[in-house]
Structure formats: structure tokens, C-alpha cells
Amino acid sequence: MNERGDAEQTASVCRDFLESPPAAAVGDALASAGITSDGIVEAVRQYVRTRVWPEALARVLSSLREDTGLREGYVPERYLLTHAALGSMPKLSEARIAPDVETLMRREYEFFARPNPNWLATFESGSRTSVAYAGMAVLKRFTAGQSHWEVSGLPRSWLLKAPLRDQPRILGTILRMGGFAPCYYQHIMPPRSNPPFLLERRSLRSWFLIAQSMEMQPEIRGIITASWLNSEDTLRISPHLRWMNDVIVNNGGILTHLGLAREDSGFLVGSPERQRLYEAGEYRPREGLFIWPRDAMLRWLAECRAGKHKI
């Protein structure tokens, strides 16, 4: 299917859901409450920033959730996301992202409208995944598969959290990049599969798509992330994940550490071994900060295209 046909298919899937009786009931309730189409989009934007729906919309959601069918299908939440996504569809081609990223974004929009029942809980309001979905719906976040990104910057306060010995290296990298912002901030999003493995091949493909998109946006200075997954403390007990840092530090990026990771940041989920070691006081992960400057990441991209790296 050509790109235009693919986009029309996604738009059709979204419209079919919005016009279905359950979703139409949500639309009628929002309209009765005076919440316009533009109001829905602005509400989704606010939700991305705050993880909380605006008060007027939250009241409508609470009322709609009294209907068991709507609640169990997360129809109100999916209506908001799908409505916003449908409005974003024409802007995707102007977003200066890799063609495969555009395709992945459309697949996410179709998922909002027609989700696998096994993953309905990912639409739970306030959850990490639902905030990610909202970001994609209004083009504040983009998916490259296993990794997502949003345009942000390196907070200056993080420099003070890094070990003193690493601060000159960080400052040198920032000078090389030309400033603290704008940068891509990477989020790791395990795939919707059981179990949701983090795989090297998928990560390399994600970074390749991110680098392709960065190439199209000359203002972006590099990519950053801060996560317990990148902490040497985590890699000490999960050495099978070391590739996550090796690709970056072996290709012009730098790694340092910030303060201790919050207990609710996810390192206790999905690993009985990490939980056991944490409870025994033998595992206290820090936030591992990596910075991959634009020039280094684009050099890696060129080497990938030349066949030097397998992706």
C-alpha cells in the first residue's frame, strides 16, 4: 500500500471507532458538557503536561465510567486519544520524521481505535503508557518502536547532580553540542508482548530511526536520557543489558550518573532478583545519564548505512 493509502486506512479506522455507538455516546456526553473538538485536543495536551485531565473533562469521564461497558473498554480515554490523533494525522507528513516513524505513529493511532484486548489496561488514566499515548496523539512524542522520544533539553540542575569528576566531561560535551537544548529525550517503551523483552536488535533499530529523524531536524543537538536501566548498578546484576550503554559510549556518547533512582521508577517491576537484592540492601540503582551528541549519532547513522553496524 502506498503512503497515501496507508494514511487513509488509518484515518478510516479512527473514524470508524469514533462513529461506533459506544464512542459516539462519549462524544455526545462531551458535547453536552460544552467540551468542543478544540477543547478535547487542548485537554490531551494538558494531560501530557500534568498527567491529570482538566476538571470539567474529568467530571464527564467519571460519569461515563459508571457504564461498565465503557469503563472496561476504556472507551472514554480511547475516544479522547483517537479524536486528537485524527486531528494530528495531516500534520505527520510535516513533522520532519523518518518515513518508518510516520508509519509507526499511524499504527499507534490504529491501536487507540482498535486495541488488542490484552492491552486495554495501558489506557488507564495516569499511567505511564497512557501519557505516552497522549503525547503521540498531539505530536509531542514520537515512537521509533522500542524507544520513544520528545523534544526537550538537558536540565542544568542535572550537572550539579553528576559526580564532580564527570562535570568537566559533561560541560565539554555540552559545548561540543552548542548548548543544553533542544535535544531529543529518549524513553524506553517495552513492546506490547508477553513478556515485554528489551532486545538489542529492536533498540538498534529504534536508534537508527531516531538518528534518521534527527538528521531531518538540524536544530536538534543530540539525544539524552536518564534512567536506572543505564545505571552501572543495574548492569552489574543484569549484564545481559550492557549493550544499552555500549552502543552509545563506543560511538561518541558519554555516560555518567545522577542521584538514586526513585523506588517507583520501575526497577522493582519484572525482576524478582532486583527486588530481592533491593530488599537485602544490595541494590540501590542510580539514574544513569547518557548524552549522545548530534555529530556522533549521525556518524553512527552513516556507518550503519555503510554496513559497519548491523541494525
- Range of strand content: 5-15%
Largest sheet geometry: 6 strands, mixed
User: How many whole angstroms does the radius of gyration measure?
Assistant: 21 Å
Run of helices and strands: HHHHHHHHEEHHEHEHHEHEH
- What is the SS-derived class? alpha+beta
Average pLDDT taken over every residue: 92
> Which consecutive residue ranges, at least 5 long each, have pLDDT under 50?
none
Number of helices: 15
- Number of separate strands: 6
Helix amount: 40-55%
Distance between the termini: 24 Å
For the largest sheet, list the strands in their spatial order: 1-2-3-4-6-5
Apparent shape: globular
SSE diagram, text form:
Layout: H1 3-19, H2 21-32, H3 37-50, H4 55-64, H5 68-72, H6 75-92, H7 99-113, H8 128-137, E1 142-143, E2 147-152, H9 156-161, H10 167-177, E3 183-188, H11 200-215, E4 222-227, H12 232-237, H13 243-249, E5 254-260, H14 272-279, E6 286-293, H15 294-305
Parallel strand pairs: 3-4
Antiparallel strand pairs: 1-2, 2-3, 4-6, 5-6
Helix pairs in contact: 1-6, 1-7, 2-6, 3-6, 3-8, 6-7, 6-8, 11-15
What does this structure look like?
This protein has 311 residues and is an alpha+beta fold. It is built from 15 helices and six strands. α1 packs parallel to α7, α6 packs parallel to α8 and α11 (200-215) crosses α15 (294-305). The chain has a six-stranded mixed beta sheet with strand order 1-2-3-4-6-5, sandwiched between helices. It has helices at residues 3-19, 21-32, 37-50, 55-64, 68-72, 75-92, 99-113, 128-137, 156-161, 167-177, 200-215, 232-237, 243-249, 272-279, 294-305, and strands at residues 142-143, 147-152, 183-188, 222-227, 254-260, 286-293.
